[in-house]
Write a structure and sequence with these properties.
It is a single chain. The chain has about 425 residues and is of the alpha/beta class. The chain has 2 domains: about 260 residues, Type I PLP-dependent aspartate aminotransferase-like (Major domain) (Aspartate Aminotransferase, domain 2, 3-Layer(aba) Sandwich); about 130 residues, Aspartate Aminotransferase, domain 1 (Alpha-Beta Complex). The protein contains 16 helices and 12 strands. The strands form 2 sheets. A 7-stranded mixed sheet has the order 1-7-6-5-4-2-3, sandwiched between helices. The protein has a 5-stranded mixed sheet with strand order 8-9-12-11-10, covered by helices on one side. Strand 4, helix 8 and strand 5 form a beta-alpha-beta unit. Helix 4 runs parallel beside helix 11. The longest helix has 21 residues. The radius of gyration is 22 Å and the shape is globular. The N terminus is likely disordered. Pyridoxal-5'-phosphate binds next to helix 5. The site of pyridoxal-5'-phosphate has 14 residues, from helix 5.
Length: about 425
């Protein structure tokens, strides 16, 4: 077990520098400089300018003393890739730098990161407070699995900050938040809720998948841990699954120790793709922010559209909170078509520049109706209770040109049968 040593110690290649010094330097860089340079090892083999995929599962040692010292965490190094791997660590270091965290630990998927965090930090009798609109997988964890381990979960209406605060006051070991939420882009005041949770000694976890560290940095708003489905914007190309948690060295060490035993470590090949994707994160996200804003503004004016959900629109109920805690409003929006829900099918079939597919944060636009995708298991009544009408469409913009996306949407809307 190696849970006591510094998580990221750049041990393998010559010229390694202490992580704390690196973190200090990296914190002075702009986002894209961090994306490109953070965590890069000083001297990869053969002068490579891109760290290779370290597919080897096991790492050799010069002698038993060194091997033992690495095993005890007294010396930097690697033993076995379920515990740590240089390519995975590169990805972890970049995310830590982007979120302004001391450390980060990567998992096989976003769900592995979320459940790994919960199982590492909670124990029977713990109480979690969260919101109704978490990602569906997280919601299942709350509804089905955590109660099985005698963890109480209190879920409150997402738009009701007073109700969330009251639930925190009733006892809270871990507050789990998402903002903006899926699929109706609700916004939570992260600073306000984190402060309240800290009054009762809770750990505050924020799933920052929708916002990305380019648009929102929860640790600066008071969160203790920030989680991503790296599968989405961080990787950005829909070709690698991954998850990551960033935070203080102590908390990440605990989660790291659990990951070693739970076994849901990130695959080095995925880490390579995700670290490569990260290098263009700021460029992609800025483009996606612009595209989503342009599309949301277009849809908000269109007579075939009943309503649009996007935190960047001044009509969003918590636009002011979003503007205060985000530097961009993200690449996901949703909207309701006027008229019967069967128009959704016709509309989606007419789009030329969008995959009808799950997920978000990719270079290509992804579109789908939550009622038949992420929320397919809900009955019409449950859908209505969750505020997800059958004609709600989630539109996750890619990096295409906004004019082309708008033209594509325009053709599909004009072609609809009259409502
Ligand atoms: C906000 C959010 N968190 C977590 C996840 C789970 O991530 P993964 O699919 O990588 O397990 C998703 C997936 O859609 C998500 O949207």
């Amino acid at each position: 077990m190696t849970d006591s040593h510094d998580r990221h110690s750049l041990p393998v290649f010559g010229g390694s520098s202490p992580v704390e010094d690196d973190l200090k330097t990296e914190s002075t860089w702009g986002a894209s400089t961090r994306c490109v340079w953070a965590g890069e090892v000083p001297a990869p083999p053969a002068g490579a300018t891109v760290l290779p995929v370290f597919l080897g599962v096991t790492f050799a040692h010069d002698d038993l003393d060194e091997w033992r010292a690495v095993g005890l965490g007294e010396r930097p190094g690697y033993i076995y890739s379920r515990t740590s791997n240089p390519t995975v660590e590169l990805f972890e270091r970049k995310v830590a730098a982007l979120e302004g965290a001391e450390s980060a630990v990567a998992f096989a998927s976003g769900m592995a990161a979320i459940s790994g965090t919960m199982y590492a930090l909670l124990e029977p009798g713990s109480r979690v407070v969260s919101i109704r609109d978490t990602y569906g997988g997280t919601n299942r964890l709350f509804a089905q699995y955590l109660p099985h381990w005698d963890v109480e979960v209190a879920l409150r209406e997402t738009s009701d900050h007073e109700a969330i605060e009251a639930a925190i006051d009733d006892g809270c070991d871990l507050l789990h938040l998402e903002s903006p939420t899926n699929p109706t882009l609700k916004v939570l005041d992260l600073r306000r809720l984190a402060a309240r949770a800290h009054e009762v000694g809770a750990v505050v976890v924020v799933d920052n998948t929708f916002a990305t560290p380019i648009n929102q940095r929860p640790l600066e708003l008071g969160a203790d841990l920030v989680i991503h489905s790296a599968t989405k914007f961080l990787g950005g190309h829909s070709d690698a699954l991954g998850g990551v948690v960033a935070g203080s060295k102590d908390e990440i060490s605990e989660i790291f120790a659990y990951r070693e035993i739970h076994g849901a470590s990130m695959n080095p090949h995925a880490a390579f793709l995700l670290a490569r994707g990260l290098k263009t994160l700021e460029l992609r996200v800025q483009r996606q922010n612009d595209n989503a804003m342009a599309v949301a503004s277009f849809l908000a004016e269109h007579p075939a559209v009943e309503s649009v959900f996007y935190p960047g629109l001044p009509t969003h109920p918590l636009h002011d909170v979003a503007a205060a805690q985000m530097s961009g409003f993200g690449g996901v929006l949703s909207f309701i078509l006027r008229g019967e829900s069967n128009r959704v099918r016709q509309f989606l079939d007419s789009l030329r520049l969008a995959h009808k597919a799950a997920s978000l944060g990719s270079v290509s636009t992804l579109v789908g109706p939550p009622a038949t995708t992420s929320h397919v298991e809900l009955s019409p009544r449950q859908l209505a209770a969750a505020g997800i009408p059958e004609s709600l469409i989630r539109y996750a913009v890619g990096i295409e040109n906004a004019d082309d996306l708008i033209a594509d949407l325009s053709v599909a809307l004009e072609g609809l049968e009259p409502a």
